[in-house]
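Teaching note: in complex prediction, the entire set of molecules is handled at once rather than each chain in isolation. The prompt given to students was simply: 'Predict the structure of this complex.' The entities are:
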Amino acid sequence: MQTSRRAWLKAATGAAVAVPLVFVAKQSLAAKNDALRNSLKYQDTPSGSKRCDNCLQWVPGKTPKDRGGCKILPGDTEISPSGYCVAWVEMKK
Ligand code: SF4
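The expected output is the structure of the full assembly:
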């Protein structure tokens, strides 16, 4: 009886520590480079057929629909595949 209570407390403490750590880790992975976004007039919507996912600078996320990065926006992991900025360059196929 005593042992199972101790085991339960140990497991509950581990979970209480692990959940915030996962949250913090996820937050630190998602980052925006606001200064460069503003200077490049980044927007989360396309400009006609010009989209981040058909731009030469695009760095894809895990899946084609996931947010990714951009070679000229260092540290930014929240670029929308359907986003756009004034530095758009056509990706040659
Ligand atoms: S340069 Fe601009 S349009 Fe091209 S991927 Fe980066 S943010 Fe998107």
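Point out the following to students. The radius of gyration is 20 Å. The chain has two domains: 1-30, 31-93.
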